[in-house]
Amino acid sequence: MTKARLLRLSVVLVSIFMILLIIVYWDNVGTAHFYLHTSFSRPRSPGAIVAGEDWEALPDVDEFLAKLLSSSLKQNSSIPRKTEQLLVQGSNKPVVSNLEENVRGYDWSTHKDRNSLDQEKLQVERQRTLREFCANSSFTFPTKERSFDDIPNYELNHLIVDDRHGVIYCYVPKVACTNWKRVMIVLSESLLDQGVPYRNPLDIPREHVHNTSTHLTFNKFWRRYGKFSRHLMKIKLKKYTKFLFVRDPFVRLISAFRSKFELENEDFYRRFAIPMLKLYSNHTNLPTSVSEAFGAGLKVSFSDFIQYLLDPRTEKMAPFNEHWRQVYRLCHPCQIDYDFIGKLETLDEDAAYLLQLLKVDRLLRFPPSYRNRTASSWEDNWFAKIPLAWRQQLYKLYEADFVLFGYPKPENLLKD
């Protein structure tokens, strides 16, 4: 009898311990809302692991976590109908209250007159280009050969996770990232307005959109899940739909310069403009505020900005700011197998297609394009006064982004 009682007691204690372990581990993880219905078919490289397949290939810890994830699906198979109805009720033309949005203006045209792109073929081509150059040993760039495990946590801070719909978005500044962050907030319901989740992306103030506490990103996993964080990341990368948006690298640089140095920005003035003006324009005793500097006609030139990017001392002091850091360093496209690659040049069509694939197009619409978006045709004018040698060096600095994402080499800028 004593042995039987001890056995029963042991079973009870082990069960209680396991229950407590699961409760503590899954606290705030949100994976109870993990949905596989967002996955969509796409070409796969040989040996790729896809949602629901090849679990035997995973390490033991990954397999254990994967089973826990899968068991939660039975309890939560779809978004509550009430939530869906609330989100659909948003106005087609929301009132834009933010001053910056009013100044920029939006293009609310439906673009029905445009020829619809064959999005499926477009995605196949973009992914094929990316995979080919990632696998091409003759094409090299920094960090290309490292594995996902070699990427430090702080370099994963651009991967935003939505556990409710099983979506991972790598945001690239100056590539419609403000509005895509808004979309992620609406989908994940990570931000409330008077106790109710935001339903319309444009209702979300910009200061909340870029607040790091608003989003669950991969670099936060370590604090939340400890030693299991990498295992959980890998499972979500296999089962969730991953996307990013890119644009012509040189045009992105022009856009970054315009928004951070042609407009009064106190933070960027102090952190970047003052050192640039001192180093490359020989200015001393500069004003301490951006308004004083602009009033005195002291502004960073595009030439100063390019010199700053090419100066080897820049990266020795600190990594590039995210607004001009290369996409391959922000999103790790050779380590992460993205399901969807969007481009700013085809933003309206790509966004609409992606929301359909994610099966959330009935919940919201992507905010419309800016009317004054920086145009590719501006490159010649902006680089006209930049020495040829600098342009060639700049291309080498951003060559990986041009090649991986299928942007043509700007030959007109790289030759006399």
Automatic annotation (TrEMBL):
Its main location: Golgi. It is a single-pass type II membrane protein. Keywords: Carbohydrate metabolism, Glycoprotein, Golgi apparatus, Membrane, Signal-anchor, Transferase, Transmembrane, Transmembrane helix. The chain crosses the membrane at residues 7-26. GO terms for molecular function: sulfotransferase activity. It is an enzyme of class 2 (transferase). Its EC number is 2.8.2.-. Belongs to the sulfotransferase 2 family. This is Carbohydrate sulfotransferase. The gene is Chst12.
